[in-house]
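Let us begin with a simple case.
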Amino acid sequence: MEEAMRTIEEKGARVIRSTPLITMPEFEKDIRGTQGLHDVMTQPFQKAFEELPAKALREVIEFNDEHAYVELPKESPDQDLLVMAEEHAMTEETFERAERIMRMRTTTSLHECMEAKGLDVIMACGDGLLPPFSAAAGCPIGAVPLGFADFNGRAFGMHLVVEAEQEERLLNIMKLWEETFPDTRKPQMFVDDSRFRGQF
């Protein structure tokens, strides 16, 4: 990642390596504030399946406990957020208020950070917290490749987030990234899309 940053600096980009957004405790607090209506929120998702081993949140928790060897690996051994959500009685009005607060805090944090440092985009490691932050803020997010891990072949890259309604800026930056790193090895295609080319 650092090598990529040095490369784009050499191409004329201004890179600031520390752009703190909302703190992790603040972000977690806001996320926890929107967990209580889990069963209502997942109903559209559930309709996509003919059968699910667990639907209600209590059933999900019990399923995870019964299959802990798969669902609760040592890297993530608990389900405290789910238990808290199941125990936390929340009305739809309370949920909507918590959601508004979360949206306001994240969008304000993003705007203040970008304005204070004169940024066009914020980038972070691909397995970081930028995707949930972007979702909470309702802002566009994209991903650009860096390469593949030597030890397991897993692809890795960076996420990019811009302020709301800045999709064109985001796409232009991603285009510049691809032009700057044209030799990045592409992942293997799992579906042959040749029969669809030229149809859209």
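The second case is a distinct protein. As before, the sequence precedes its structure tokens.
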Amino acid sequence: MASTDLLRHPLHSLHPSEPDPSSSTHPFLLPPFITPLLLPNNSSDARDHLANERTFLSWLRLSVYMAIVSVAIVISFHLKNQPSAVEKRVALPVGLLFWVLSVACLANGLANYVKTVVKYGRRRALVQSGWKTQVIFTIVACAIVAVCVLFLSTNAKTH
């Protein structure tokens, strides 16, 4: 394959069976699966791709933090020496809520990353957050605020 062929096709891989940019085959599903995608660096492509990776890693970090909080809430959701009956009843549902939100954050981050990389390969990437990202982020923020209020109200009753 000549170097001019690389510039004609916007989506490349290191294996000989290069995908046709106009085909509907998903580049993440082509074998071998561990091969990096090569994109020509025109204008700010490298910067945009690295920004997309950082965004995915931020969603991954948020997902891990929420999973840790989920486990911590289920294991020991009490602010006094012994948990009250209300704390025992609330621990499992709140922990499961944070676990579901953790998985939703991970799925949303991965979906955004894959979708944007595919669009970069087809030279059609538009970098913006969609309504699904905004909804998930709003739900996560509301859940965090609600649990903080719950912690503060429970702590206020103990003093």
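The beta strands are 12-13, 37-38. The longest helix spans residues 85-121.
Keep these points in mind for the review questions at the end of the chapter.
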